[in-house]
Each structure stands twice: as C-alpha cells, then as structure tokens.
Design goal:
- The chain contains 33 helices and 36 strands.
- It is of the alpha/beta class.
- A six-stranded parallel beta sheet has the order 10-9-17-18-8-19. Strands 24-23-25-26-22-27 form a six-stranded parallel beta sheet. Strands 28-29-30-31-32-33 form a six-stranded antiparallel beta sheet, with no helix packed on it.
- A hairpin with a 2-residue loop joins strand 5 and strand 6.
- It is elongated and about 140 Å long.
- The model has no long low-confidence stretch (mean pLDDT about 90).
Length: about 950
C-alpha cells in the first residue's frame, strides 16, 4: 500500500466480521482485509470533520459526506486519536476549499457587488449552509481550522438568517470607507453622503430621487466611473440613456473630464445615448432601414402635412365637415356647475368662436350660430333691440340672435322642461325674465323664436330650430362646403385645428393608441361623441402611417417601437450589465417598454433611474410621471436614494419651493438641506403696476436696475410661461440697454439652468395665465398619459422649476386685481415671502383682520399649550382670540358650530363643540356615525357633547 497517511486497526469483532483495518489514502477512507480494499468513501465532499464515539463493542468513526452519514464500527481505541487527527487534517484541506469558495461568493455578492435582490436566495443559502455546518461542530472547527478562517466564518454566519437591509448597510459602510478618496476627488467638490450612496447602490432596480440642484448628473458620472474603476464592468458593459442630445453630450463630456481628473484610465467609453439614437443604432446594426422622415427634423413640414390631410378630409364629403365642426370645442352641460364662480371661470377660460367669427357665451349658443351660418341665415349676435329697454338690472336688453333684415329674434333659454335652471341661478327670477322678454316682443311687434337647454339635452336643438325658422318664413339654404372651408381658412380656424390634430397625433404615436384605445380614453374623459372623435383621429393616424410608407421612412416613435421588436426577437442580444437612465420623471411608456426589453434579454443587468418627480414637466411629450411616483408598483422591489442637499439656492428658496410642491400628496416627500443659509426671506412679491398698460415690464426694469445697484455682474434671468411675455420683456430691456448678463427663458426651457437672480412674470388668470387654464384641448388631455387629480399638478411643477432656478434672490411679479391662483396660495401665512407691493399687502392684511371688532388685527402667539392668534384690540375685543388654521396657518375664526379659516383662498373649516369649543371628531357608534367632542377623554373636564352627522 502506498501513500497511506494513517491507519487504524479493527478490534477482534471487526476482524471476525471481515475487516482488518481502515486507512487514509489521499482523499479516500478505505476499509481493507488482507490488504485488499473492501469499501471506500471519498471525503472530498465533506463539510464537517470526522468524530470518534465510544461504542459498547469498540470505537466508532463517524464521517458525514454530503447528505449521508458513514460509520465505521469495531475499531481499536489504541491509536484512534492520532488517526482522527490525521484524517481531519486531510478533511480540513477540502473544508478550506469549500470555505474559500464560500468566502469568494460572499465577497462577490455582498462586498464587491451590491447585494442584489436576485442574489439574495444564493446569499441566504450560503449563510444558512455555513451556519449549519459550523454550529454542528463549532469546537472542532475552531480547533482544526486557522483562526483567520474562523473569523470569516463567524462574520458570515452572523448574518443568518439573512436580512437584505443589514447586508446592504454593511456593503455601503465598507465601500464608503474604502472608496472615500474616489468620492472626494471624482467631482470638483466632494460628493455628499447621499450622492455616494446613489453611486454605490446597484440593486437589480434602483431609483435616485433628486431635487433641483442636488447634483444628480454628478451621481450619473461618478457611478459610471466607479463601476469601471472597481472592475465591476467594462466601459462597453455600461449604457447611459439621456433625455435629449444636449444632455447626452454633457454626460459624455463630464465623464471624460472627470476620468482624467480622477486618474481613471478608460480603454473605451460607456455607451451614452438618447433613446432615439440608441434605437437607430440598434436598427442599423441589425440591418433594419433607418431613413428618418423629413417630419422629424422639420416641424413646419409636419404641420403642413396635417393641414393638407385635414383639408382633404373635410373636402371629401359634407358629413365629415359637419361632424368635425361639432367636435371643437368640447361641449359642457352648464347644469353641471354648482356655483356661479365655476361657471364664470368656464366662460372665462374657454373661447367659443363661431364660423362667422363671433365670440359667444357658451357651447349651445355656438351650435345655434354655426347652424345659422351653415344654412345661409344671416344673423347678428346680441344686436341692440329695437327699443332701448332693460329687463335685467344694469344693462340694456340684447337678444341672443337677430335675423338680419327681419323683425325676428332668437333667445336661447337655459331651463329644463320643468323650468329649472343652473344651481347658482334663481329659477323663479329667471323664468320671470323669460315672461318679461316675451311680453316685450309682443309689445314691440317683434317675433321671438325660443330655444331651450332641454332641446340640447334631447339632441334636437338644431332640428327644432329649423322647424321654428321655417314657421317664420326663414328657409334654410345650406351653403357649399367649399365656401365654408374658404371661410375657415380666412378665419385661421383650419390652422388652429391643425395644431390640435398635430398634438393629438403626437400623443397617439407616443402612447401607441389604437382606435379602440383612443375611444376608451375619450369616453373615460367625458369627451362628447368619443367614437366619432376616435374614428377621425385614427383616420389621421392611418394617413400618417401611410405617408411614412410613401416616404420609405420612420419617425422617432417608430425608431423606439422597432428597436423593441429587434430586441424581443433576439436579433440583437444586449450586453450591458449596468443601465443608467437620466431624467426618468419625463420618460414615456414606450421608452419604459424599451428599457424593460433590454433588461429582459440582457445579462441580468442592474437598472438605475435618476430623476426628480418635482420637475416632471413634459407630459405633452409623453412623459408618464406615474412611472416615477409609482415605480415600485410598476417595476417591483427597488432600492431608493434621495438627494436632498443642494448647493444652488438658499434655504429661503428651498423651503418655499418645497412646501409649494409637496402640497400635492402624489409628489414624494423630500427635506431639502441647503449649503447656503439665510435668516430672512429672499423671495419678493411685487404687483405688475396694474394702472399702466406695460406695467409688468416697467416693474421688470425697476428690479433689474435695483439688482445692478448692488451686483453689477450677477446673472439675471427673466422667466415666463409664454414666449410672447419673454419677447416683450427682452425688447424693453434691450431698448434700455439692460440686457447685459441677462437671460430670457420660458419655464420649460429654464429646466437645468440657473441664475443669481430670477424674475418670474405672467401670473394672472385665464387661458394665457399661469397656471394655464386653457380648456380648448380636452381631447389632447384625454390622449396624453394620465395625470394625478391634484389641481394644476403639472403647472405646479413648472412653477417649482422656475423658483429653483434662482441662486440668491427670487422676484415674482403678479397682477393684483385678478391674481393667479398660485399667487393667492402663496399669500397664505405658511409661506415666508416679502410682500413688497401695497396692493398685495392689503390682501394679506385682510387675512388677519379680526371679524369680531372694528380695528383689531390678529397676531400669532406661541403659548405654553401651542400657537394661537390674539386680537390687537386686547380686552376691547369681545372674543380676542382665534385658532391657527391647520391648512394654511392663517387665523381660524369660531362660530357656534364651526371654526373657519379667515383666508378666503383657503376656506378650511372644522367642526367645534357648541358646548366647550373643542374640536369635534367623527366617531362610529352602533347606530352609525356621529360627531363627538374631543374633550370626552379629558379626565378632569370631560365633555360628552355629540351631534348627528
């Protein structure tokens, strides 16, 4: 026998049973008789050491191999200890091999790489198995293995049972210390703690949620370089997707620059691309034609094609023309309004322009006017009546329509068949006015044709009108379609409708909508005639698809769609192991589908998306914010990092902007820390000099001059919602030679930019105000990605973007007589603004006027039991105190049963106890809900008062 490391003889019983001895040879334990092997077991797979047991009939050697336990009985005691020592020394070599593999796997999955969700099963099994093996023979392991190995074993088994959060915290702490030098020098300033975590965290799915000015681009660049520097990926295995070409170029430039300054050698570069460029690259590499349509580069040609299609569609038959005209604008049932203010805003924010060019007051009047025009009945809208009379207080009687060259008038009455009116109108008075109008026409010998709201509800308004006209001798003579089209061109209506259709087509393309999906969305949005509208829009879409075929070209949407198909068909196998996506808050559904396809067919890549839900402002381009705000629901488990420290602006600007945007509960909560600290508000509210025609621009000039007195070289930006405001401000400042170091941006174009001083303009009510209250595009809104229900949510984000462009000071110029709802909100006490103009100061003062005395004003006091308001009149005021509104922090004034906020714009109201004045709480009893006093639980002063719900 050769290479026998140790030998142990059998006792008498063992020899009688046919075995002389057992011996260790290489990695095998062999039993023999007469030097011939009769059994053998390899201990190469042993995860535990051999042990000796004292049996009744001699020593027993126990060896656990894999899942089986092998026992050798009837052994001599003499020499057994030395044999066991040699055997275990041999086994230790293989346990060390197992440990080496285990340590390497743990190192790879937990220390080197970020502990990913998809690795968690392997890590758990690794820790569980090692724990079971070790604790089964802890004393033996401690004796037979090196102390450094045991230390590593104890460290790993300490994580059993595995908790992902614990492993990730360990990884982060380890790498934060190890990579400190890299993090300190990769950017011009050391990365913040949050930025470092954003770099390190590479779970399967990751989101870096930023705020304005918190350095998300730095995280993108540092993450790519960190992956390369640590050997986690080759540059070619990293894909960085940017929102647009400029952003891609910036990322590429920053990465090269920071690699050089950080002394990181790049043999090649990560693939940094826009979605469209990546799509085109994939198609080109797989032999798919990528000739781009001329429409992608020439917006004017695209609009010309839409206009041409529309004219051909309208010319094709008269039914198309009539159906199309009926779709724009969208009808609204006036009986759906609950208050006069709602209806007034509806009329203010919508333009009902007839085919004859008249601006009328509502959709039903528009139908009547267009019917008259299309049927050759010449009319005048609201012409003076033949006799100067007043039926309603304050203005002369003007019937809705006058049929020219006749004594016939048309009045449209807003009543149902029972004589009911809109909720805000006194039905009795309205019906009395109808009777007075009838009497006036009878008195003056004029003919009155009456139409009614209920006829529109019953869908016979125009057919009934035709009969009524014929009874008066007015014969309808429909005008030719070509004449109508000529009129529409002259009035600019074709151009306006082309703009709407262009936007609708873009929404259909980016959302990938079929005719059925279009109809479903329109119906959900309450669009009138959803099937007719869907048929029209799908016809436009099919016409566009055919036009692309005629050009033998694709557009940007095709590029994404076809690239998805290329990957799903495995014509191209993605190789990227790490995917980074910038500006994720503005990503479209199609782009998300593109990313998912890359992940599904790739080598288990890690995805990191970087974005700021507070700055999602590109819904009109297909941006689907819910992909960010509901990322977990859409994508599954993910690791989140928030960047909450900004070096751009001060705490005054951060607090106001953050508080404003977080009023919307759909937005993520963030707590922004600023590097620059100030003690006083740096936001100034000024009026637009309403007494002057160009007052807003004069105010801009004043502010610029004031800034220049204190900072001759500071950068200034004028920011507005619309280009026309920007152009007029630019013209004034250029004329005054004040344009030095001054930029002019729209809110959309300002994203990503900054200036020392920003001046925001254009805050007034209406269709061209801010927030934009244009209701013309209801169909477009229905086709675009879904929007949360919070009022003006995207416009709020737009204002947040504007506010956070300012580094030092922010100036807001607004109209005081018809202020934007945003300004009304910002006047609430919870916002810390400098109210500069007297007009706004007066509005602000009204919030604090005590309603219980003549001269008193309410002042905020911090008492030992909390905050409250006290009246400046002191004991001269019969009440003297007020609560603090929980919504806007203005005074909340008590009546007997309620406490109502003194800030009209807030209007928050809470129920209070009419016995003790404490707040009431809605409770549930065995007979249903009721209001109970919150003093019920106060031991020494219990109040048991209740009220019915």
């Amino acid at each position: 026998m050769h290479d026998i490391q140790a030998k142990l003889s059998s006792n008498l019983i063992g020899r009688l049973l046919g075995r002389d001895c057992i011996f260790v040879q290489n990695d095998v334990l062999i039993a023999s008789k007469n030097d011939i092997s009769i059994a053998s077991d390899s201990f190469r797979e042993c995860k535990g050491f051999a042990t000796l047991q004292n049996g009744i009939f001699g020593q027993v050697l126990v060896l656990n191999i894999g899942n089986k336990s092998v026992k050798y009985r009837f052994l001599q005691k003499s020499g057994s200890a030395e044999f066991l020592k040699v055997l275990n020394a041999s086994i230790a070599e293989f346990i060390n091999d197992y440990l080496s593999k285990t340590f390497n796997e743990f190192e790879a999955y937990v220390i080197h790489e970020y502990p990913r969700d998809t690795r968690m099963g392997c890590i758990s099994l690794l820790c569980k198995s090692l724990s079971e093996y070790y604790y089964a023979q802890a004393d033996v392991w401690d004796m037979c293995l090196k102390s450094e190995s045991i230390q590593k074993v104890k460290k790993i088994v300490g994580y059993h049972p595995v908790q992902a959060e614990v492993l990730r915290e360990y990884h982060e702490n380890y790498q934060l210390e190890k990579r400190m030098s890299f993090f300190d020098r990769v950017e011009s300033n050391p990365l913040t703690h949050e930025q470092r975590l954003g770099v390190l965290r590479s779970n399967d799915m990751n989101m870096v949620l930023a705020a304005a000015g918190t350095g998300k681009t730095s995280v993108m660049v540092a993450k790519a370089l960190d992956l390369i520097d640590r050997g986690l990926a080759n540059p070619s295995e990293i894909l960085v997707l940017a929102y647009n070409r400029a952003a891609a170029e910036e990322l590429r430039g920053r990465l090269v620059d920071k690699a050089e300054s950080g002394q990181i050698k790049l043999e090649s570069f990560p693939q940094i691309s826009t979605f469209h460029a990546l799509g085109r690259w994939l198609l080109h590499n797989t032999g798919v034609p990528t000739y781009l349509s001329e429409f992608t580069e020439d917006e004017m040609k695209f609009k010309q094609w839409v206009t041409s299609w529309l004219e051909k569609y309208l010319e094709s038959n008269s039914a198309n023309l009539l159906n199309f005209i009926s779709l724009f604008p969208q009808p609204v049932n006036p009986f759906g309004f609950n208050t006069q203010a709602e209806y007034e805003r509806y009329v203010r924010d919508n333009e009902f322009r007839t085919l004859n060019g008249d601006k009328v007051k509502g959709y039903q009047e528009l139908l009547i006017a267009n019917f008259l025009y299309m049927n050759g009945v010449a009319y005048t809208y609201e012409a003076p009546y033949v006799s100067k009379r007043r039926i309603d207080i304050g203005f002369d009687y003007r019937p809705d329509f006058y049929i020219q060259d006749t004594n016939i008038y048309i009045e449209h009455f807003g009543i149902d068949r029972q004589g009911n009116t809109r909720a805000d109108i006194d039905a009795a008075k309205y019906n009395e006015a109808i009777r007075n109008k009838r009497a006036l026409h009878a008195e003056c010998g004029t003919s009155l044709i009456e139409t009614f709201h209920y006829e529109w509800i019953e869908e016979n308004l125009t057919s009934s009108l035709k009969i009524k006209l014929e009874k008066q001798g007015i014969i309808c003579k429909p005008i030719k379609s070509e004449d109508v089209l000529k009129k529409l061109r002259e009035e600019g209506r074709i151009a306006d409708w082309s703009d709407l259709l262009k936007k609708a087509l873009q929404a259909i393309r980016v959302e990938r909508l079929t005719e059925e999906l279009i109809a479903n969305r329109l119906e959900r949005a309450g669009i009138s005639q959803p099937k007719n509208a869907a048929t029209l829009l799908d016809a436009l879409h099919q016409g566009y698809i055919q036009e692309l075929k005629n050009q033998n070209a694709i557009d940007f949407d095709d590029m994404i769609i076809r690239a998805i198909q290329v990957i799903e068909n495995e014509d191209y196998i993605p190789k990227w192991r790490y995917i980074l996506v910038d500006e994720f808050q503005d990503i479209s559904a199609a782009r998300m589908e593109f990313i998912k396809a890359i992940i599904a067919k790739g080598p288990e890549p890690s995805l990191t998306v970087v974005g700021d839900d507070w700055q999602s402002i590109y819904r009109f381009s297909g941006g689907k914010l819910e992909l960010t705000t509901r990322f977990g629901e859409m994508i599954g488990n993910y690791t989140a990092t928030k960047l909450q420290k900004t070096f751009r602006y001060n705490n005054s600007i951060a607090n106001t902007a953050g508080q404003f945007i977080m009023e919307n509960p759909e937005q993520y909560k963030k707590h922004i820390e600023t590097h620059a600290k100030v003690n006083l508000s740096q936001i100034y509210l000024l009026d637009s000099k309403p007494e002057k025609q160009q007052g807003v621009y004069e105010r801009v000039k004043e502010i610029v001059l004031k800034i220049r007195e204190n900072d001759a070289n500071g950068s200034i930006a004028i920011i507005a919602r619309y280009n026309y405001l920007i152009n007029e401000a630019k013209e004034l400042l250029n004329h005054s030679r004040l344009q030095k170091n001054t930029s002019f941006w729209t809110f959309h174009k300002s994203k990503g930019l900054e200036a020392d001083y920003c001046i925001l303009i254009g805050f007034f009510q209406g269709r061209k105000g801010f927030p934009n209250e244009n209701k013309d595009e209801a169909i477009i809104e229905a086709l675009l990605p879904s929007l949360d229900s919070y009022p003006h949510s995207e416009e709020r984000r737009l204002l947040y973007v504007g506010i956070t462009r300012a580094k030092k000071k922010l100036y807001i110029i607004a109209g005081p007589t018809a202020p934007s709802s945003f300004i009304t909100e910002l006047l609430a006490p919870k916002y810390d603004l400098n109210i500069v103009s007297a007009t706004f100061k007066e509005q602000y003062r009204k919030i604090f006027k005590c309603p219980n005395c003549e001269d008193g004003y309410l002042r905020l006091i911090k008492g030992i039991y909390g905050e409250f308001y006290t009246c400046s009149t002191g004991l001269g005021c019969s009440v003297g105190k007020a609560r603090v509104c929980s919504m806007c922090r203005a005074p909340s004034v008590d009546s007997r049963y309620t406490s109502t906020c003194n800030n009209v714009a807030c209007g928050n109201s809470i129920k209070i106890c009419d016995i003790c004045g404490r707040p009431m709480k809605l409770r549930h009893g065995k007979y249903g809900e009721f209001w109970g006093c919150t003093g019920y639980g106060i031991k020494d002063d219990q109040c048991k008062n209740t009220n019915k719900k």
